[in-house]
Structures are given as structure tokens and as C-alpha cells.
């Protein structure tokens, strides 16, 4: 069975394609420092569905682009 995972490298790639810095993205998402977003982008913190939706809106991409299929172990 397949499941969907957040594609963190795609998230980073899309941010960089817009020439948006970590600092700028963090501010748009309401973080006080760039570390807040950095931890999400690197997988050090879990990203909520609401936060992922906001990231997609800021990057002006469909949220589906931020997912990848992964094998689920039974």
C-alpha cells in the first residue's frame, strides 16, 4: 500500500526557485527567526497540514506538488 509523504526537498527547491530566503519565508509564516522554517524544511520538526497549505500558498503552487508517494510497511 502506498502513502503520501511531504517532499521536503521539493519544498526547498520551490522556495529557492522563487528566490525567497529562509528568513523571508520564516517571516511570512509567522516565525520569529529563520530557524522555525529551516527546521520544517529539513525535517527536524514535523509540518502540520495547515502550515503545509500556507507554504503552498506563499510559493503559489498546488499543495499536491509538495507530496511524494512512499511505500508503507505493513
TrEMBL record:
Residues 11-66 form the HTH cro/C1-type domain. InterPro entries: Cro/C1-type_HTH, Lambda_DNA-bd_dom_sf. It holds the Pfam family HTH_3. This is Helix-turn-helix domain-containing protein.
Amino acid at each position: 500500500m502506498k502513502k503520501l509523504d511531504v517532499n521536503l526537498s521539493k519544498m526547498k527547491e520551490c522556495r529557492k526557485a522563487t528566490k525567497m530566503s529562509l528568513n523571508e519565508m520564516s517571516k511570512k509564516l509567522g516565525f520569529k527567526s529563520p530557524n522555525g522554517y529551516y527546521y520544517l524544511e529539513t525535517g527536524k520538526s514535523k509540518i502540520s497540514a495547515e502550515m503545509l497549505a500556507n507554504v503552498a500558498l506563499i510559493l503559489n503552487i498546488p499543495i499536491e506538488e509538495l507530496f511524494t508517494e512512499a511505500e508503507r510497511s505493513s
